[in-house]
Write a structure and sequence with these properties.
Oligomer: single chain
Low-confidence stretches: 553-578
CATH architecture of the largest domain: 3-Layer(aba) Sandwich
CATH class of the largest domain: Alpha Beta
Largest sheet: 10 strands, mixed
Shape: elongated
Number of helices: 17
Structural class: alpha/beta
CATH topology of the largest domain: Rossmann fold
Mean pLDDT: 88
Radius of gyration: 29 Å
Length: 578
């Protein structure tokens, strides 16, 4: 039953888009409450004007000076306290844009009226994103997530406080388990790059800190409280390990090491991704990069063990490859063949300096000393629904290389498939590092391609960054859904957050972990949500039972990922609530 909470204020202008409400004594309105009022208009059905509380104030009526507060409190000066709330309109039904009349009763919107006010009734497919301040579910229109009417998500907030990565994984969990995607959810895939610790390597393990209140929150949202059921983990090889063992501490099974052979590095023209930090377009050494990459693709003859015969020399390691390229570029007789005749020595030296600097960072990722038939490629085509690529042990240059090469490969695979289904979600933290506002780089080009064409190909980017103001504008502009957690005060003042009402900008500076401001095209006001504590382990200390039992015995020489992949593929039907 709707509760009357006040009347439309007559001392402030009321417009069809904003109005003020005098709060009734004995009740209250808080930020984010949903209210509604009705006006009778001649010749039309009654017009319901609904909105969200975006500001609340309280003051003494009858006071003239600041010091009057003491006299009023002592009872020597007559005055009364009056609260008022600013309402930002979210829905006018029917669409007759007239202001509510002063004195009209305003009620708290509940049940169907709340759903109507927040446009949930118009959403064909609703995706739960958390609970509102009233403790009721808040939904996202799935049409703006899967590419039907829009795509991509931008999440901003202070590192370690805004819970950006936690919200991104929560959004994936809701997409996989809510039923918003119907039967398609089973085949929907996600690719996550883990850049901070080993926090995302245990998504298929229950969280041992889950309590009854959290389980009740999941129940309210119509979701099961359990971990992801189908996860594949890829990690780089340990430095100096001749066997290429995955460099992971928190998992003893279900991890595959990834790397690229020398032959693949040459044939797939991966050299430009060694220079994936955004550079000025005027940097001439980039001409040498593409010339050398083309030369390697022509010259390299692959060998069975992943090595390559290049220009008459057998290359088995990245160090040997760098030395060969350096030798050809510093030799006057071969420099023109490898760099082009029009390139000067200074430009060649600039290229060599950067290439030699990559030796230490990339040597364990580009190699020709392991069995060629061994599985080593990162791919989402396997049986797992969620693929996690661990980067936290890699230096910055190597992280950029892995992200750029992997995204390009996945995007090209989706292009070749010719269909947008099944969807592929890509979760990438520190987006401002990979796609900064200034400069160009191969990885930035890939991310721009995903932002601008990914919707039609079924590639959905969920990008997280501390500062949206430092991310390429076209990527942020193509994000249909924008999410903000705790913000730095200076960042909150940036024009990139102009979609937040002034009060929400101020609140974003104070937001606690788990509180997010979610803006979507259907609703003119961002909604404040609290998403529940993850049901999956977010750090080793929270690790509970795995969703898929580990293999009982290990087989010497067997691929451990193949074991867990087979287990995931044969999981029982009740592992998937679709």
């Amino acid at each position: 039953m709707s509760e009357p909470v006040g009347r439309v204020l007559g001392t402030e202008d009321a417009t069809p888009l904003t109005f003020w409400v005098a709060v009734r004594p004995g009740t209250y309105l808080q930020l984010d409450d949903v209210v509604a009022t009705t006006r009778h208009v001649p010749g039309h059905d009654p017009v319901t004007i609904a909105g969200v509380v975006t500001q609340v104030r309280a003051r003494h009526e009858g006071a003239q000076f600041d010091s009057d507060v003491f006299l009023i409190s002592d009872g020597t000066l007559p005055a009364q306290v009056q609260e008022a709330a600013e309402i930002t309109t979210t829905r006018v039904d029917p669409e007759v844009y007239v202001p509510p009349l002063p004195g009209t009763v305003v009620r708290r919107a509940v049940d169907d009226e709340r759903a109507t006010a927040l446009h949930f009734d118009r959403m064909e497919r609703t995706l739960p994103v958390g609970l509102g301040r009233d403790g009721q579910p808040v939904f996202l229109n799935a049409d703006f997530l899967d590419g039907t009417r829009g795509a991509h998500v931008s999440i901003s907030g202070i590192s370690g406080v805004a819970t950006k990565t936690s919200f991104a994984t929560w959004l994936l969990y809701s997409a996989f388990h809510s039923g918003a995607f119907g039967a398609e959810a089973v085949n929907t895939k996600a690719l996550i790059f883990n850049v901070k610790g080993e926090d995302l390597l245990l998504l298929d393990h229950a969280n041992n800190r889950l309590n009854e209140d959290t389980r009740e929150a999941y129940t309210k949202l119509g979701l099961p409280a359990r971990p992801f059921s189908s996860v594949a983990v890829f990690a780089p090889p340990r430095p100096g390990d001749p066997d290429g063992t995955a460099d992971v501490a928190c998992r003893s099974y279900g991890v595959n090491s990834f790397y690229w052979t020398i032959a693949e590095f040459c044939s797939e023209k991966l050299l430009p991704f060694l220079f994936a930090d955004a550079d000025d377009d005027r940097q001439q050494y980039t001409m040498v990069v593409h010339q050398v990459a083309a030369r390697l693709a022509r010259e390299a003859e692959p060998k069975e063990d992943g090595a390559a015969l290049i220009d008459g020399e057998l290359v088995r390691s990245f160090e040997e490859l760098v030395d060969l390229i350096t030798d050809r570029l510093t030799n006057e007789e071969t420099r023109g063949q490898w760099a082009g005749s029009a390139v000067g020595l200074g430009t060649v030296n600039a290229f060599i300096r950067r290439l030699v600097a990559a030796k230490r960072d990339l040597s364990r990722l580009i190699r020709g000393d392991l069995p060629a038939r061994r599985a080593h490629a990162i791919s989402t085509e396997g049986g797992a629904q969620l693929t996690v690529v661990d980067l936290h042990n890699l230096p910055d240059r190597a992280q950029r290389f892995v992200v750029g090469v992997t995204l390009r490969a996945e995007f090209e695979r989706k292009e070749r498939s010719g269909t947008a289904r099944p969807l592929l979600f890509v979760v990438l933290d520190e987006l401002n590092k990979y796609a900064p506002r200034e400069g160009t780089s191969p990885i930035k080009d890939v991310l721009l391609d995903i932002a601008e064409r990914g919707r039609s190909l079924g590639v959905i980017l969920i990008g997280a960054q501390q500062t949206a103001s430092e991310v390429e504008r076209r990527i942020v502009a193509n994000s249909a859904i924008r999410v903000v957690g705790r913000l730095d005060a200076a960042e909150a003042a940036r024009p990139e957050y102009g979609y937040l009402p002034p009060a929400q900008r101020q609140r974003a500076v104070l937001a606690k972990p788990g509180t997010m401001f979610v803006a979507q095209p259907d609703i003119p006001v961002p909604l404040v949500v609290e998403f529940p504590f993850p049901a999956w382990a977010t750090r080793p200390s929270e690790r509970g039972e795995p969703s898929t039992p580990p293999p009982r015995t290990s087989v010497s020489g067997a691929d451990p990922f193949a074991v867990i992949g087979a287990a995931s593929a044969t999981a029982s039907d009740d592992e998937f609530p679709f």
